[in-house]
Amino acid sequence: MASRDDIKFLSNPNIGNNMKKYCRFKKFGIKYIDYKDTDFLLQFINDQGKILPRRLSGNSLKYQRKMATAIKRSRHLAMLPYVTDLLK
Asked: What pTM does this model have?
């Protein structure tokens, strides 16, 4: 019988074996999201400047709202752009 290494797959066999998402704010005990920390906020923005949804970022509802508010405040003070091409 052929071993798993000998079998050639047409598609990636690791598809669907994604890591479980978690809220990094709860895990690391972050209480306050600083709107002046743009490097941290860039993790939750895609390359077009849109805020990533909860299903992609893994945030809980409470911290997703706080994070969205911090991003909007940072945009208002021109620390983050509203719209961009290839932000990252």
From this structure: 0.75
